[in-house]
Write a structure and sequence with these properties.
Layout (H helix, E strand, L loop, with lengths): L1 H15 L1 H15 L8 H21 L11 H23 L1 H4 L1 H4 L9 H26 L11 H22 L6 H15 L17 H5 L2 H15 L7 H32 L1
Helix pairs in contact: 2-7, 3-4, 3-7, 4-7, 4-8, 4-9, 4-11, 8-11, 8-12
């Protein structure tokens, strides 16, 4: 019961510091582009350019075959890349959050558990705009969007919860093992190809259907598939209850490990930094 009480108190403390989190996230977002002429506008130019490159290369250049449901490959790819780019950016930035804000970590009275959330929230700003750009692209292509698109909110929450749990582990460990940040970047590059983001699992006939569950163990695949369900297929998350329960079970385990790892190592952060 004491561990459950500690977890509950952890989230209560985070909620009580919500104003601080938003203020730091806004400041971090502005400071990231403070030295550039266009400032924070660059954060919104990037999603537009990224999506345009996907369409240019895969739709018009390579003339890739449509995905299942006769969906243009470029649109299918964009729906999968939107959550992946958020996951990649938020995890890599949150991992280094304590190192970047080391001057705050050394303050005795500062609640340093908010720092990974600050980086995730900063990435959410760009992610929200990325979603809007993707919607505009679907409309320009004349692809019909359904009310199921609203569940993008649910899958964004799911992605945020997953990243938060992982970032509490990685941000705590990177203080003692600085190479971890580079290792995570390499792992994420492999993970992008192992997760069916650029390729369609059902299209690979040499992968038997009975083996698909192995790929579905990857919680990122749940989120990527969810975005495609929201944008393209109109499938609701409650229509796949087993997969949804497994995902949140994994997120809960990762979150608990993250909280207790962070709390156990927290007292040593200032000394090491």
């Amino acid at each position: 019961m004491s561990k459950i009480r500690k977890c509950f108190q952890w989230f209560v403390d985070l909620y009580s510091n919500r104003r601080l989190i938003f203020n730091l996230a806004n400041k971090d977002f502005k400071m990231r582009y403070a030295a550039s002429y266009l400032g924070a506008i660059w954060a919104f130019i990037q999603p537009v350019v990224t999506i345009f490159i996907y369409i240019l290369v895969f739709q018009w250049g390579l003339k890739s075959a449509p995905a299942s449901g006769n969906v243009p490959y470029a649109l299918w790819l964009v729906a999968g890349m939107v959550p992946w780019l958020f996951f990649f950016e938020s995890l890599t930035n949150a991992t280094n959050s304590l190192l970047e804000f080391s001057y705050l970590v050394k303050k005795v009275v500062f609640k340093i558990s908010v720092l990974p959330i600050v980086k995730i929230l900063t990435a959410l700003y760009v992610h929200a705009f990325f979603i809007v750009v993707a919607i505009v692209v679907y409309i320009l292509f004349g692809y019909p969007l359904t009310f199921a698109l609203v569940q993008v909110i649910y899958y964004t929450i799911a992605a945020t919860a997953l990243v938060l749990g992982l970032s509490y582990i990685t941000s705590a460990l990177v203080i003692f093992f600085r190479d971890l940040g580079q290792i995570i970047n390499i792992i994420l590059q492999f993970l992008m190809w192992l997760t069916p983001i650029l390729w369609e699992l059902e299209a690979f006939t040499n992968i038997p259907t009975s083996a698909h569950w192995i790929f579905k163990l990857n919680p990122i695949y749940y989120i990527v598939s969810g975005y495609r369900d929201a944008f393209i297929y109109g499938t609701w998350f409650w229509e796949k209850p087993t997969w949804t329960l497994c995902f949140w079970g994994v997120v809960a385990v990762i979150g608990l490990i993250g909280i207790f790892t962070f709390k156990k190592l927290e007292k040593h952060f200032a000394d090491v930094l």
